[in-house]
Amino acid sequence: MTNGTVTEAGTGAAGPPLVRRGRERGITTLTLDSPHNRNALSARLVAELYEGLEAAAKDEATRAVVLTHTGGTFCAGADLSEASGGSGVSGGSEASGQGPSANGPMGLARLLRSIIELPKPVVARVTGHVRAGGLGLLGACDIAAAGPGASFAFTEARLGLAPAVISLPLLPRLDPRAVGRYYLTGERFDVAEAARIGLITLAADDVKDVDAVLEPVLDGLRRASPQGLAESKRLTTARVLRAFDRDTEALAELSARLFASGEAREGMTAFLERRDPAWAR
Q: Is 219 domain-assigned?
């Protein structure tokens, strides 16, 4: 997989970047690089990711964006160390933070919409675990490939939350019966099941095979014209954007209300203290 021949930090970064950028042969790679908190959606990571997407959109040499990660987790969701002290960024997750404009759930909605509206395809490359709000990133991507080491779970209900904002890109794309199960139970599921329900596009048999299955995809994107990619993507995302137009405000309000609730505070505190919440039986 290309890590790019050009590497740079997000502008104004305090310390090493949490989202690293690279570019090689028409593909910009954005790498979530915050393994200490499992690439959680902290305020800073969200801001740097948004920055990287904006830069890729303006770069005439970029045909597509690959979103990948370091460490064993693609994204754990919102950053609970931030969320337990205020409103959460995610529509439910194992974390929270403020969005690119420091406005909580609306910030996350703006980030997800920016992925969907980007005039260039965004391809997720996953070799680790994905939880809660991290699944929203997958749902916003146009194509997603994952290896056998990946696992997936909507953990929100176990924390007193709900997958609110992340439902905007997910519900139009996922199998309804599967959503009815996994939203409610928080069960983990594997790569084969993620492919079956429409969460990912390609399932690799081996970690090394993730790059192999992506090779023809990226080759096809390199051969496409900027106009052809932008207009073709517009056709495939129209239904998802209608959901954003219709439901963003209501789902952001739901997310904020849940994060401020007593049950969510107990759920997040229990998670951080590695104990069962009061309601667990």
A: no
